[in-house]
């Protein structure tokens, strides 16, 4: 079943490329026809009937030149192929980022739990000291352990650029959202400039 879906998908992709190239050829042919009409006008006298007919044909081609769109969303031409590749690549990158984001979230949570366990250990040492005689060896050992945990408390960083904690998840979401907004703005600007051309 998957093999049939893959074959069908590949066939649709080839058909789409063929349709895009046919649209481009029709557009180019329309432009060439207009240029040919203007060039042929030079072979006839200024007020001759064939020259007037060629001029009318050139105007007709200009007014009704072939233009193919996808439901008036965008013009279909050769650059559409590059747009499709660009969009597919962007989606692939987004999917890869989401897959690695899941792993990153797990790492961040583990780092946060290690820091939390260090803080709990320190608090537990101080709390347990209350149960022992002030001069007992166990109380002194608990005090030393609390000092060691305080001095060497676990802290995880990303190459010393920033500390990894629960807030890092929100920072990642914020950066991803900003990145998405920038991509949407660039894409809409490109679409507007393509329509103007």
What can you tell me about this protein's structure?
- This protein is mostly helical.
- It folds into 2 domains: 1-76; 78-197.
- It has helices at 2-41, 49-63, 79-129, 137-151, 166-196.
- The longest helix is centred in the middle third of the chain and has 51 residues, at 79-129.
Detail the topology: elements first, then pairings:
Layout: H1 2-41, H2 49-63, H3 79-129, H4 137-151, H5 166-196
Structural class: mainly alpha
Beginning-to-end CA distance, first to last residue? 44 Å
* Shape annotation: rod-shaped
Helix content, binned percent: over 70%
Which key terms come to mind for this protein?
7TM_chemorcpt, 77% helix, mainly alpha, cell membrane, 5 helices, transmembrane helix, Gustatory receptor
In short, what is this structure?
The chain is built from 5 helices and no strands. It is mainly alpha-helical. α1 (2-41) packs antiparallel against α2 (49-63) and α3 (79-129) packs antiparallel against α4.
């Amino acid at each position: 079943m998957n093999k049939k879906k893959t074959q069908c998908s590949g066939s649709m992709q080839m058909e789409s490329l063929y349709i895009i190239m046919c649209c481009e050829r029709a557009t180019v042919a329309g432009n060439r026809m207009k240029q040919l009409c203007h060039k042929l006008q030079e072979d006839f006298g200024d007020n001759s009937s064939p020259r007037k007919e060629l001029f009318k044909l050139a105007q007709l081609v200009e007014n009704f030149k072939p233009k193919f769109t996808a439901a008036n969303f965008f013009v279909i031409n050769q650059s559409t192929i590059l747009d499709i590749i660009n969009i597919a690549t962007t989606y692939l990158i987004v999917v890869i980022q989401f897959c690695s984001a899941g792993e990153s979230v797990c790492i961040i949570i583990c780092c946060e739990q290690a820091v939390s366990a260090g803080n709990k250990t320190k608090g537990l040492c101080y709390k347990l000291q209350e149960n022992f005689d002030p001069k007992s060896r166990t109380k002194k050992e608990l005090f030393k352990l609390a000092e060691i945990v305080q001095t060497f408390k676990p802290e995880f960083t990303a190459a010393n650029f920033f500390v990894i904690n629960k807030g890092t998840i929100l920072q990642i979401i914020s950066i991803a959202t900003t990145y998405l907004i920038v991509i949407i703005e660039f894409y809409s600007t490109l679409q507007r400039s393509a329509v103007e051309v």
